[in-house]
Amino acid sequence: MLPVSALAEDAAAEDSEQERSKRADAIIVTASRSLSQPDLPTATPVQVLSGDELAHRRQGGLGETLAGLPGVHLDNFGGGASRPVIRGQTVPRIEILTDGANLFDVSSVSPDHAITTEPLLLDGIEVLRGPAAARYGGNAMNGAINLIDSKVPKAVPEGGLSGATEVRYGTGDEEKTVAGRVTAGLGQFAIHAEGSRRKADDYNVPDAFGSDELKDSFAESSSYSVGASWITEKGYIGAAYTRQDSEYGLPGHSHINGVCHTHGADLHCAAHDEFDDPFGSSDDHTAYIKLRSERVDVRADYEDLLPGFEHVRLRGSYTDYKHDEIDGPALFSHYTNEVWDGRVELTHKPLLGFTGTLGVQYTDGTFGGINVNDLHEPPPTALAGFVGNPHYVTENIGVFLSERRSFGAVDVEIAARKDWRDIDVPFTDYVISPHLQSAIDSYDARNGEGAFRRMREESFRTANPSASHDPFSASLAMTWQIGNGYSAALSLARTERAPNVRELYAYGNNLASNSYEVGLSQTQRASSTFPEARTDVMETAKSINLTFRKTGGPLEFEVGLFHQDIDDYIFARLIETEVETGVAHNFLLYTAADASFTGIDGQVSYQFTPQSRLTVFGDYVGTKLKSEDDNLPRIPPGRLGARYEHSAGPLTGDLEYYHTFAQDKVASYETRTGGYDMLNATLSYRLDIGDDRGVEFYIRGTNLLNELAFAHTSFVKDQSPLRGRSIAFGMRQQF
Length: 735
Fold this sequence. Notes:
This protein is mainly β. The protein is built from nine helices and 37 strands. The strands form five sheets. The protein has a 22-stranded antiparallel β-barrel. The chain has a six-stranded mixed β-sheet with strand order 1-2-7-8-5-6. It has a two-stranded antiparallel sheet with strand order 3-4. The longest helix has 13 residues. Its main location: membrane.
């Protein structure tokens, strides 16, 4: 087993002795227990990335860090934004969590938006599926990714002080990174501080791409957090403030299609009459995002606090997220997301043989930014009506229950969640330019007092209807402990997911994905030939998962088969592709159609000696779009690979190779993506300096074959290939 990373060891030092023993052996494995809730067994696999594997593999984005786990691919957008793709789907069908609480950003509404986490400061990452994810609702249809951190201390460190530092340098993008953390104990109180700084230039790509660097793939970020807890024998309560700043380029971005507009069902990309080019300049500027996220977390975990309950868990947060999208000198878009969220979970003591958790969650959020690409233009001089960009106010109440019981060799889990979600779009400012007032007064005189405003209100409501959804999700799982480490698990689930803001309200150009998009509620606004506008669409998935597992002994394996039938699957259907400007622009209409996903993923490992192990892994997902003459877009191709690990005292190393196959089954506006080979290797040396202190030096090489590789899951795959050959040098220290 590889030694635990310095940062992870520091986090473990903050937990109880029992917690440390449970977490120390969690490397890149699949397990039946969660890192964040080790007493909660799950029938379906919990993939865990922590320890040295996390430290060596992490990149600037979450998608890049997780890519390579069985069943996990990435949707990349240069060096600053990457989203994980699990079994063929990414956010909003994957819920991103931070220590069991929802992580609120805007990554689900556009692929160029980063997930606001800093992998450098994480202790572990776990991928939950089945009943373990059902408690997080319909957005966890394909799973939940839980980010484990230590910003709110759970225990007083032994000796009163613990910490860790790390520095690293990468050749492929001139990456320079430093990270550190420290936790101090004062009686029953623990104080924690951590921070990181990362700067990377445009990353190298193979010469076959036409250049040796990917223009505008640079990324720069900084993050820090301060937290404190009051710790008793029964548990802790604490809070933390976290701020993350990031600035990163958008390769493949083009503003030349900002002029694109529609005439009914026809997309037109030339300026005329009132349809102007909002940029009116060349397409040579660097486009980038400047992001800031501030968040306050309140966390508490207590044992035996209330009669009849083993455990009480509290998660509360306030998130203030904003980012600017900038093209050269022009600020053309501004996104915001302000969210209050609270979650309480009560785990009851055994009752009729069952143990389980009852919970409630309340969320209130205000989001803004979609359909805006012209903030750099001066406001018009003639204003009459509601002006400014709408904000979308979401209120959600959710209740959930999970129960589990063993019947001899069979463990049974059930979970259910019910949500009540309302989206309202408040009126913006009502403004009338002085020189238009007399004309409006004349209109009101003919049609009744306030007629003009009522007409504008009706127009606003038609364009911005409210939406209400009451999704319900439930799952049942059974695990048969066959004996000698063998087990088989069957999981059944019915999951309902409500559409997100972009799927409902998109109406205009999305320059990041080179598309003009029309949401479900905007269809008739775009063209009378399109389907009726809807806000009541509910995506409903019926899923079955079958998992075979063997633990203990030299041979271990875990293989999962899955099938999903999804009614009213929401996707962007192509209407036409316009090439007037020389850059293709897709006219996309969000559509609900029936679809299915079927696949297999897993890994098999053999421990030859206590020092050496070979693992074979792979995944495949196939899809079918039942009611449309097309294929679903951005579905990852199959993959097969192997990894060999060896240790010799303080020296450890691994060699990993996998082949990603070509993707030939493409949507009407996609092109075939060729397969590629990927070779990665790591070598590390750990030096113990006594008193639980240690220093590790490591070297990790990625894409050592320097293959030109494209991710079919990316919106800008042809403009944004994966990284070329790169070597990262790092040093980690624990104290």
